[in-house]
Specification:
By secondary structure, the protein is of the alpha+beta class. The chain is built from 8 helices and 27 strands. The strands form 2 sheets. It has a 16-stranded mixed β-sheet that branches. The longest helix is centred in the N-terminal third of the chain and has 25 residues.
Length: 439
């Protein structure tokens, strides 16, 4: 019994020391943040990720042989042209005219042995870095929407290439060293001799329009579509636990997390996401604007179908990507058909887009349609009082999208007039009546 008190004292001492050690460990504990950083959430991909040159593609090419134009809007031909450009060595890129007049452009395009490639939107030179090999690493912070190629001296393995900007009337010129110049002529120029003829529609003081002389045959398609608004919600909001939903109407849902908001409009199958704190009036250079916009969309696989750069507005840092199918643009007054991004202060400010994608076509519903020739359309437009040829950016064949059911759409080929980025469907009734603009 005489050892009980000393044992109690030792046990008490050990307990006190253990308490001190545990307290010290709690006070000085630091979590292993490296482990936390490595356990990221699963990446959300709504569609396949793409390369930059997937969203940069021409919609028309015309060729001058002697005194005749031939041309094509074939999707396969546009892919072949972009493939032929790949790896070109651009030896120099120099400004030629910063006050380019329409007559000068028209004269160039109608020069013999000249090919003109038309893009739907203004393209930063840096976007072609994945296609061309520019000798000059400091590319100009400007854009172009047409390329004119002089193949007259291809035997010397040198092509003269001109870039024309529709926004600031700038003409840039370059020489391209091409070891396989004969291959370019065989694969791109020679086949153009078999293309249909195009008519030049001259306009005083304006660049000419180039329209197919022959009647157009195209298919009418019916597609099942897939709707993915929930996936987009998971992409744009960083913490879904903070997101609150409110139903604004029978066709409108609103989500917000205190910092940003997203509106789903089931009537036109669109979503609009806004992060107000990022709003900025600071102008972003075209190259960075395109890169930021493309990477933001591509990170979550947002190019769910064939979307192509359609317009660039550096005044408000806006880029638009137009929806295409089989090489033709899609327009509608029933559904949104463009992705729009407005870049803000180091992040996206506004993101508006369709939340549907084409799942598969219904072959039994496919139907061939014959459209009037471009020349016929031009003659009809000339007789109208509500459309002036001088106001037209272009006259194109595209698809008009309508809903058969909630998840079934019909895409009918039609002629459209494009004015200031707004399309107008040209039907027999409209050509004799009122004009309505579409998305």
């Amino acid at each position: 019994m005489k050892y009980i008190e000393p044992v109690k004292s030792v046990v008490l001492f050990l307990l006190v020391m253990l308490s001190v050690v545990l307290t010290f460990m709690i006070w000085t504990y630091t979590p292993d943040y490296k482990v936390i950083e490595q356990t990221e959430g699963k990446e959300i991909l709504i569609g396949p990720q793409k390369k930059m040159d997937d969203v940069i593609r021409p919609y028309k090419a015309i060729y001058r042989f002697d005194k005749e134009f031939t041309g094509t809007v074939s999707n396969g031909a546009m892919i072949d042209i972009m493939d032929a450009f790949r790896g070109w060595n651009v030896l120099d890129l120099t400004p030629i005219d910063n006050n380019l007049k329409a007559d000068s452009v028209n004269d160039m395009i109608r020069s013999n042995n000249y090919m003109t490639v038309f893009f739907p939107g203004e393209i930063p030179y840096s976007a072609f870095n994945t296609i061309f090999q520019f000798a000059d690493k400091d590319l100009p912070e400007t854009t172009f929407n047409r390329m004119i190629i002089d193949w007259g001296n291809y035997n010397n393995k040198v092509l003269q290439v001109f870039f024309i900007s529709g926004n600031n009337e700038l003409l840039m010129g370059s020489r391209v060293s091409l070891e396989n110049a004969n291959q370019f002529v065989r694969s791109i120029i020679e086949p153009a001799k078999t293309y249909g003829t195009f008519k030049e529609v001259e306009r005083d003081g304006f660049t000419s329009l180039y329209i197919a002389n022959d009647k157009i045959e195209s298919a009418k398609y019916t597609y099942l579509i897939e709707e993915k608004p929930e996936l987009f919600k998971n992409v744009v909001f960083t913490n879904l636990n903070n997101v609150v939903r409110t139903d604004e109407s029978a066709t409108t849902e609103k989500y917000h997390d205190g910092m940003s908001r997203m509106v789903i409009d089931s009537k036109v199958k669109s979503l609009t996401y806004v992060y107000p704190a990022a709003e900025s009036s600071v102008r972003i250079e075209p190259s960075k604007l395109f890169t930021d916009s493309f990477e933001f969309i591509n990170e979550h696989g947002g190019f769910t179908d064939d979307y192509r750069l359609a317009s660039t507005s550096t005044s408000n840092n806006q880029l638009d990507y137009q929806l295409y199918l089989h090489g033709l643009p899609i327009y509608s007054d029933q559904a949104i058909n463009r992705i729009t991004t407005i870049w803000g202060d180091n992040r996206i400010f506004r993101y508006k887009r369709p939340y549907f994608s084409f799942e598969k076509d219904i072959p039994s519903e496919k139907e061939m349609k014959e459209l009037p020739s471009g020349s016929e359309i031009v003659e009809k437009i000339k007789k109208l009082n509500n459309i002036a040829l001088s106001d037209i950016d272009d006259i194109v064949v595209g698809f008009y999208l309508t809903y058969d059911q909630s998840t079934i759409v019909t895409l009918e080929p039609c002629w459209f007039v494009i004015r200031n980025g707004i399309s107008t469907k040209l039907t027999p009734d409209i050509l004799g009546g009122v004009i309505n603009g579409l998305e």
